[in-house]
Amino acid sequence: MATRGRPKLYEDEDLLASVVRTFARFGYEAVSVRSLSLSLGLSHSALGQRFGTKDQLYRTAVDAEFKRFIEEVNRSRATWPSDLSDLGNLRALVHSFLSTSARFPALGQLMNQEGSEPSSRLDHILKTVVRPQLQQITGLVERLVDAKVIHPITMRALFFLMAHGAEAPFTLTALSSVFDDRDGVLHVADHVDTTTDILFRGLVRNPADLVALGPSPSPHQPPS
Predict the structure, then answer these.
(1) What is the pLDDT of residue 69?
(2) Domain containing 93: what range?
(3) What is the predicted pLDDT for the residue at 40?
(4) Number of folded domains in the chain?
(5) Is 11 within a domain?
(6) How far is CA 175 from each of CA 4, 39, 76, 115, 169, rounded to the nearest angstrom?
(7) pTM of this prediction exceeds 0.85
(8) What is the pLDDT of residues 168-211, one digit of tens each?
(9) CATH number at residue 100
């Protein structure tokens, strides 16, 4: 039998994604649970009744969105061969991270907000997302450095080259659009291919190792 009562305006996934976008755009301190509820067309107390305090809502929304992001990174990685070398696996992870980041620009914008000052919110993201994910590639990087396949690189350098370098046009869209007159509208696949290639040309000691990697599993699609 169908349930009676007012239907939900949002599924939880969509609602929480909207919450993350709002925190990412305006910053934590500028947002209230009441203003969030009203901006989403809900009653002023709807989010509070459903998720609790602003901090609880923030953590629930951020956790859910990062969970979706990591699932999509893993799904993208699964399109690559499963028997790659350490170097091939590192490239697949970097490429998958970047291509997925384009679909989750609010998370990059959120990290720009939270990364500028110490806070319990940043600590939470570091503990639940950043450090666990970095641990997955730390061993790869260390083995490749020890084997003299890649040049020594700090995890800080690799992280910022990926997450706040190559990924930046997906989050700093107004600044990125300044280059449209010269470069054309940003084409995500081309940008991800190019920046991944440049990063690995700088990392890998022997050019023959790059040639041995071969192309990515998906053919390059020109801009439409």
Answers:
(1) 97
(2) 62-213
(3) 86
(4) 1
(5) no
(6) 48, 26, 27, 19, 8
(7) yes
(8) 999 999 999 999 999 999 999 999 999 999 999 999 999 999 88
(9) 1.10.357.10
